[in-house]
TrEMBL record, chain A:
CDD domains: ATP-synt_F1_V1_A1_AB_FliI_N, V_A-ATPase_A. Transmembrane segments: none annotated. It catalyses: ATP + H2O + 4 H(+)(in) = ADP + phosphate + 5 H(+)(out). It comes from Prolixibacter denitrificans. Residues 449-527 form the ATP synthase A/B type C-terminal domain. HAMAP family: ATP_synth_A_arch. This is V-type ATP synthase alpha chain. Residues 109-196 form the ATPsynthase alpha/beta subunit barrel-sandwich domain. ATP binds at residues 235-242. Residues 10-71 form the ATPase F1/V1/A1 complex alpha/beta subunit N-terminal domain. The lineage of its organism: Bacteria, Pseudomonadati, Bacteroidota, Bacteroidia, Marinilabiliales. Gene3D superfamilies: 2.30.30.650, 2.40.50.100, Bovine Mitochondrial F1-atpase, Atp Synthase Beta Chain, Chain D, domain 3, P-loop containing nucleotide triphosphate hydrolases.
UniProtKB/TrEMBL annotation, chain B:
CDD domains: V_A-ATPase_B. Pfam families: ATP-synt_ab (PF00006), ATP-synt_ab_N (PF02874), ATP-synt_VA_C (PF22919). Gene3D superfamilies: 3.40.50.12240. It comes from Prolixibacter denitrificans. This is ATP synthase subunit B. Residues 346-436 form the ATP synthase A/B type C-terminal domain. The lineage of its organism: Bacteria, Pseudomonadati, Bacteroidota, Bacteroidia, Marinilabiliales. Residues 33-72 form the ATPase F1/V1/A1 complex alpha/beta subunit N-terminal domain. PANTHER family: V-TYPE PROTON ATPASE SUBUNIT B (PTHR43389:SF4).
Amino acid sequence: MSTQGKVKGIIANLVTVEADGPVAQNEICYLQTRGTDLMAEVIKVNGANAFVQVFESTRGLKIGDPVRFTGHMLEVTLGPGILSKNYDGLQNDLDKMDGVFLKRGDYTNPLDDDTLWNFKPLAKAGDEVEAASWLGEVNENGKPHRIMVPFVFEGKYTVKSVVEAGEYKINDTIAVLVDADGKEHNVTMVQKWPVKKAITAYREKPRPFKLLETGVRTIDTINPIVEGGTGFIPGPFGTGKTVLQHAISKQAEADIVVIAACGERANEVVEIFTEFPELDDPHTGRKLMERTIIVANTSNMPVAAREASVYTAMTLSEYYRSMGLKVLMMADSTSRWAQALREMSNRLEELPGQDAFPMDLSAVIANFYARAGFVYLNNGESGSVTFIGTVSPAGGNLKEPVTESTKKVARCFYALQQSRADGKRYPAINPIESYSKYLEYPEFEEYIAKRIGDKWIASINELKTILLRGQEVSEQINILGDDGVPVEYHIRFWKSEVIDFVILQQDAFDKVDMNTPLERQEYMLNKVMGICHTDFQFESFTEVGSYFKRVINNLRQMNYSEFETDEFKKFEEELNQIINERKVA
Amino acid sequence: MATKAFQKIYTKVTQITKATCTLRAEGIGYDELAEINGRLAQVVKIIGDDVTLQVFGGTEGIPTNAEVTFLGKSPSLKVSDQLAGRFFNAFGDPIDGGPDIEGQEVAIGGPSVNPVRRKQPSELIGTGIAGIDLNNTLVSGQKIPFFADPDQPFNQVMAMVALRAKADKIILGGMGLTNDDYLFFRNVFDNAGALDRIVSFVNTTENPPVERLLVPDMALTAAEYFAVEKNESVLVLLTDMTLYADALSIVSNRMDQIPSKDSMPGSLYSDLAKIYEKAVQFPSGGSITIIAVTTLSGGDITHAIPDNTGYITEGQLFLRRDSDVGKVIVDPFRSLSRLKQLVIGDKTREDHPQVMNAAIRLFADAASAKTKLENGFDLTEYDQRTLDFAKEYSNDLLAIDVNIGTDDMLDTGWKLLGRHFKPEEVGIKQELMNKYWPKEA
């Protein structure tokens, strides 16, 4: 019989429970109040008292209310049918809930028990298998959803039988495995896994090296992220975090996109719900929603479940990675997750760290980012979880604990800048402060040399230098006045503006400009670098600005035109003429 | 609230602080209401038999032998059509001398809307103020605060917006209103003959500050009644949310919680989000729109209250005194309506987005010309024209005393552009220029 308990104390959603038996840290329990079960998680144990955080409002809960411990940690249910679902932070299917309002204690099945799936076996009797070995696959929205040996299985097993190809429900037995002691185990298409434990059923996790195309120039060209890489986007409110996140999740060249809407505005999730079923996936032509999973725990939903939501999303990502798929996970925003940790730590009366965040905040963040990665599976295939989190720094100050802790672990840093946003220079990523550590990886260098060319990284570095010098010159002009500096300075400044307007800035709302494939990025980069290498002749500084505005205008018209069409070529031709006007022979 | 016969009366208070009392009691539910010597209180902590109450009216004069009864329910409001036209205090009791409300009793601070059941907001809310309708268009189901210094006329602007907006109901949640401001709202609504569609929950500076914690939930519970049961479009005005947050920090301080940034409780973000996220477009047609006021100190938006608010709300409206025209304007740079894209150029005239952007861009040019002037550099002829434009733009469109329809705003915009600039300087799409550029300019 499982452990039972009674409520002993209540402070908001922190409840003390006296247990009559063994209790594990992070164990899930249910508090029964007036016929409703409230889910909670053990976060501290002291003698017979377990401190639990309740995932719901504790209104009306009384001392002495009975508590039932489940003997397991918070788990997600894994199986076919997860794609295009809208879950809350505890993996309840939001669409299955009745009524307009969320009801307390309403827990719904994350999968559909009655759907028939067309199963194809991949393993056969006599095969030796282990956790995460592929036994078969079903087609889930055009993706091969592998049915695996449950991750909790330890050691080696022998396949006794696998069902024939055909239609099965998720709870049907599709294989029988025999363990080393000769005991038989039935395997269905469904398994469970605790969200706070990483799924590590793979052979090795090398340093990631393959470019993950996002179609966003200031990322792909300037500070690329890789399959299995990590990145974060800090920015004050109103700098375009959400638009950028949506752009990446729409365009990224990933098989699966998992979006964790963690403590943000509900209307932003509504935008995804409304748009994604209509939009086409640029890589497969199917609807975007078909490759997307949304874990929505918006700011008004219970705080403790907000903490769980990022783990739920990460576990779903790792599950699809084990199938050899490229997964992109986005979390908006990890600051809200950290705040949920802070609220709990505060109620536990722990000694606080900086800004009242818990002392282990940076360890928690580091652990979480470490779950991303590119892996080689036991069967030699590869899969990846790329993770991009946003951070909402209090007061826009990047020296706050969440930003600093994240900076230590995330390899790409995309700093959104208020002044760029004010000047409508979107995406407002500051090209100089931002970085991608992957540019320094020899593995990446080798990969990109094969994919694009061996001059690529050198070009990028040169481009960054031009931007930096442009910024220096602009500061000098501001101090000394337009006529206080040589004409050469103005040219230098405007060359950096060409890069800014043509490569960095991108219109997320324009059909063509929103998504730039890599070949096109390469073409435009070469074009722009060609202009930067050209010497121009001007009499006075007054001519420089208006001349380069024409150059920029033509390049931008090229950005707005379909690649290599007549229209595109027409603007390019005009551009070449403009360049020849002032070019020093 | 009459005491029922079987209710147990406790008379041994073991601990009293400025805002809380602790006593021994059994069988008490969390969040439950209690009465202590006639004052309302709410259970905020239970440890074994020790129950801690937050006393809304403050604990002045409460003795250790005070009579405590528990009411067996959390704070609630009786909702029905009778709410319309009435004024209530933070507990939902009438303060206008009228009779008590009859209706269904609903616990305040109810559950959140399931995100998959929300509809995308799409109805424009017209206010006649060009700084809002033209540059920062409001949409039903939106939540947006005024960020303003205490000396700015935000309550007047809000009252104006409320009366002009075509909402079925307007619900005022006043927190820490001065008595003068309370009377101002009463008079304005009365004079406009709009009282029958207005419900007010008011906590004035004369009332204890902790009471105001109930005001937003009261106002929004009433709003949900009209929006859900009656499918009405409801506009909720909350003023001033900074004073609400201050009350939160008082309580958390008395509860010995560790403060985070700016001595605010660590849960400030969630506390504010719970309120603002009640703004919603329901699938059945009703909607709740929230317009709030967050007063700033010295225009500082990095303070925890405006900062957290900015991350929650869908934009913000900034008021600023423009010394060039001597009027209060809606600042076009720092104001933002995140939902305006859903309606402009679609529910309004096609040229709306372009005229809006062109004018703001040229207004920005004027700002840099001004900086140049201040730094002692010479102005070009273009700079001078932008300055002339900025003055008229500020006076004719941005000022809060403007009251015209959206088409008139756009026409005025074109007129100003035509008067001060050449067609190639405004950067508007050619097809719109052909149609709207003033001929005789």
